[in-house]
Amino acid sequence: MSKTNNIKSSFLLSLTALIWGVAFVFQSMGNNYMQPFTFNAARNLLGFLVLIPLIVFRQLHPNALGGEGFNIKKLPLKTTIIGGICCGLALSTAGMFQQFGVKYTTVGKAGFITTLYIILTPIFGIFLKKKCPFTVWIGAAAAVVGMYMLCITEAFTISLGDLLVFICAVFFSVHILIIDYFSPKTDGVVLACIQFLVAAVTCGIIAIIIENPTVEQLSNGIIPILYTGIMSSGVAYTLQIIGQRNFNPTIAALIMSLESVISAIASYIAYAMGFLTQDQSLSAIQITGCVIMFAAVIFVQIPFDKLSRRKY
């Protein structure tokens, strides 16, 4: 991969982290207007609709985005549909637990817990016969310590919201592994479009059965839906798929992990400006836990094996 495309991919993934970090604030706001399945159905449907014009445009102008790995290629229909369904089911499950989670915990904590997918992904990769370096196990141990400091109360209990967000991180790990498998085999934008449609239909059916969504709910929560649907879903997930294509997955994971820091900063600003009613402040121990968790995420991305073989 050329240096120019490396820079382009780094920029796309950095923008992804920024969008996702801020999205935690809007997801928390969305819970004020509607139930989680309704919200996720709306945002994913919007993400699907946003990508339709882009797909048509790229079909008419296949070289418009420029650069190797960004041009549209011949679509293997069966692989694309299967990949989109698998990505959509993983995404809808992860999004469900995340949306329920931010309802019962702070935005900053949710951001850091979600980022544990960086450590969980290589561990789960063992089941796909992918090597898991020793640094991941060290990082996992450190992350457990950090999560304990961040989440466990004086009564030695973990809140429902923190637990739900952790489960969300597990499914996001699965989502990343699915993308890693299907992204090189088909067109990333089409794959993203199908996954949003699958997620929207899945969440929509459940919402109709158990939540009784109304037009008034959607109207009142239009701002959170627009941001998460257009930016977090339609734009960011697509940037992730395109940015990950032919790019070092270690560096990609490192860049995207910045969403945890961004979510903490964004939540504090949103609370100070009155957009969030729940106190977003963290104690000194919780902040220390965040630092340890983020350090663990960074640590697992350091290629010690390559550094040890480097010749000076």
Explain how this protein is built.
This protein has 312 residues and is mainly alpha-helical. It has 14 helices and no strands. The chain has helices at 3-30, 36-60, 77-104, 107-114, 117-124, 134-151, 160-182, 188-210, 215-220, 222-244, 249-256, 259-272, 284-299, 304-309. The radius of gyration is 19 Å and the shape is globular. The two termini are 24 Å apart.
Pick out its properties.
mainly alpha
Q: Brief overview, please?
A:
The protein has helices at residues 3-30, 36-60, 77-104, 107-114, 117-124, 134-151, 160-182, 188-210, 215-220, 222-244, 249-256, 259-272, 284-299, 304-309. With 312 residues, the chain is mostly helical.
H/E element sequence:
HHHHHHHHHHHHHH
Report the radius of gyration as a whole number of Å. Answer: 19 Å
The best one-word shape is globular
Distance between the termini: 24 Å
- Please summarize the sheet with the most strands: none
Mean pLDDT score, rounded?
82
Care to count the β-strands?
0
Q: What percentage of the residues does DSSP assign to strands (E)?
A: under 5%
Q: What percentage of residues falls in helices of 4 or more residues?
A: over 70%
DSSP helix count?
14
Derived from helix and strand composition plus strand pairing, the structural class reads mainly alpha
Q: Give the low-pLDDT segments.
A: 66-70
Spell out the blueprint of helices and strands.
Layout: H1 3-30, H2 36-60, H3 77-104, H4 107-114, H5 117-124, H6 134-151, H7 160-182, H8 188-210, H9 215-220, H10 222-244, H11 249-256, H12 259-272, H13 284-299, H14 304-309
Helix pairs in contact: 1-4, 1-10, 1-11, 1-12, 2-3, 2-8, 2-10, 3-7, 3-8, 4-7, 4-12, 5-6, 5-7, 6-13, 8-10
